[in-house]
Write a sequence for this structure.
């Protein structure tokens, strides 16, 4: 990959000002980003637990997968942002509509059809005849209404609320197999978001304590695979649901997904003639050649995955936008991409990655300029600044940290690195402990591609991230949130795109929570055993169109 052309930093003057959740269990960092325990850094469990046998050969053997993220985040589909749990839930549950994992095009899942016209304020869906949950009970309109009422309930905080509440008014039962979604205003982008409302059995999850059970890993859906066992910090097992009659049936009789966060044992599990797994995600760049030489296919997906910095804006001097800008400008992103990412990344030139349909370069692009960084710090009256970077210990993030330290040390900022388990980092955030700067991984693409969803996931007056950054009460933030809500309601697609790009300029300039680099995520698999694998540009795997060779 050629080195990237360095651009002069573009820092403009502040423009004229032109959504308490606390997803204690939502876990989303590295998969979209970093919410409490998503990438919980945990090691694999005992070998006797991980090895379920039957992974050697034959069409009826167990598919063994290695996931580079923790399986001990929330499994509640209305709450989770955990990479492991979201990927697993996509095999266990269905939405009315689901989306292809790569193109993100919606297709009929529990519903019989995608609406032909999404431009109105009423969408009607008929449920698939014969669809049943894994306990044998039929899927009904009551189950659909049950889930959406939870999501829209003003007294219940869920992550999914942020994806639906702004545009969805209510969901009504027409009869046992038909429902109507009533919108507040035309919102065609909502069609692809329906995959984020996984339909759950009311007779199971309306019981006292059932949502806590869902958080801990109880998963009963209508999808092609049913969960058979769940061991936090070790593995989760699945088997094909015999009565599934939907569009993407199970191709594997059984699956065993191992959670191995540490890079070396994860790579070892899929390496060599006696490899214990057929597929793994989150492959370190340094191991690509080794795996390819061993006969594995290794492919990457470029998307929103990023290393971001988040500043505590209640802590001086990080309340000063010039300081935040200076620290971004000081980072040698090209060196980070060359050394840590082995060429598999690009410097962030917007909050969005370059492949996003709404992308354009932001007006503030933080190209490497240490002299300008020093000048901005001087303008802010900052001298002898010492910073501790509280960071998640996701392997590729840890690889990037030395470049940040070297870059900041070089401009006279004494920098200490403090990588910790992801759970520990965001427990501190939830407890409102003091910090200066957080470095972590995020990838909102696990929720979808539309920029409105991505930006509201990260920014809003009642947003988790803004609570962590302690910025929501800032006057610039309040104006920004109004601009974002106006863009959500804009019916004209091109005007909406322009409005989104304009408010992203403000997000870029303020640099409260902002990406440093966007990188590729690598997936490796044995092509002699598996076909139909497509590498995702976001954490996890999707095996709904894969099969044994």
């Amino acid at each position: 990959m050629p080195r990237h052309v360095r651009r002069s930093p573009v820092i403009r003057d502040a423009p004229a000002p032109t959504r308490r959740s606390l997803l204690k269990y939502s876990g989303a960092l590295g998969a979209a980003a970093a919410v409490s325990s998503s990438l919980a850094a945990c090691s694999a469990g005992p070998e006797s637990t991980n090895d379920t046998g039957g992974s050697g050969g034959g069409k009826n053997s167990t598919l063994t997968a290695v996931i580079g993220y923790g399986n001990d985040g929330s499994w509640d589909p209305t709450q989770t942002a955990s990479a492991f749990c979201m990927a697993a839930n996509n095999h266990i549950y269905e939405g009315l509509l689901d989306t292809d994992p790569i193109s993100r095009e919606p297709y009929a899942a529990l519903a019989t059809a995608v609406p032909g016209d999404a431009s109105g304020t009423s969408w009607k869906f008929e449920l698939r005849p014969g669809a049943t949950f894994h306990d044998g009970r039929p899927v009904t309109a009551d189950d659909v209404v049950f889930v959406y009422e939870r999501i829209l309930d003003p007294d219940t905080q869920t992550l999914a609320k942020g994806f639906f509440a702004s545009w969805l008014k209510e969901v009504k039962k027409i009869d046992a197999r038909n429902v109507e979604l009533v919108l507040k205003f035309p919102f065609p982008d909502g069609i692809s978001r329906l995959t984020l409302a996984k339909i759950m059995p009311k007779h199971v999850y309306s019981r006292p304590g059932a949502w806590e059970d869902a958080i801990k890993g109880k998963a009963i859906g209508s999808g092609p695979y049913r969960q058979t066992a769940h061991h936090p910090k070790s593995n989760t097992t699945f088997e094909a649901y015999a009565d599934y009659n939907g569009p993407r049936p199970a191709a594997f009789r059984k699956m065993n997904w191992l959670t191995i966060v540490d890079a070396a044992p994860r790579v070892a599990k899929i390496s060599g003639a006696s490899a214990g797994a057929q597929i793994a995600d989150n492959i370190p760049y340094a191991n690509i050649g080794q795996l390819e030489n061993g006969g594995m296919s290794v492919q990457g997906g470029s998307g929103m995955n990023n290393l971001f910095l988040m500043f505590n804006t209640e802590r001086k001097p990080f309340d000063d936008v010039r300081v935040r800008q200076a620290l971004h400008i000081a980072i040698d992103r090209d060196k980070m991409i060359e050394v840590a990412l082995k060429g598999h990344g690009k410097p962030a030139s917007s909050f969005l990655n370059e492949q996003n349909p709404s992308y354009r370069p932001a007006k503030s692009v933080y190209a490497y300029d240490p002299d300008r960084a020093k000048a901005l710090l001087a303008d802010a009256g900052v001298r002898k600044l010492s910073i501790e970077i509280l960071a998640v210990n996701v392997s590729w993030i840890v690889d990037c940290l030395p470049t940040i330290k070297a870059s900041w040390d070089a401009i006279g900022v004494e920098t200490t690195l403090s990588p910790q388990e992801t759970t520990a980092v965001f427990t501190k955030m939830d407890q409102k402990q003091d910090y200066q700067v957080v470095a972590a991984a995020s990838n909102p693409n696990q929720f979808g591609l539309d920029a409105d969803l991505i930006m509201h996931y990260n920014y809003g007056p009642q947003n988790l991230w803004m609570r962590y950054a302690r910025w929501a009460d800032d006057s610039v933030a309040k104006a920004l949130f109004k601009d974002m809500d106006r863009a959500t309601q804009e019916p004209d697609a091109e005007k909406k795109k322009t409005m989104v790009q304009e408010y992203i300029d403000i997000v870029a300039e303020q640099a409260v929570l902002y990406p440093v680099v966007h990188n590729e995520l690598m997936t490796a698999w044995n092509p002699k055993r598996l076909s139909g694998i497509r590498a995702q540009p976001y954490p996890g795997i999707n095996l709904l169109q894969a099969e044994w060779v």
Remarks:
- The first strand starts at residue 62 and ends at 67.
- Residues 205 and 211 are 6 Å apart (CA to CA).
- Residues 95-202 form a domain with the Dipeptide-binding Protein; domain 1 fold (CATH 3.90.76.10).
- The two ends are 32 Å apart (CA to CA).
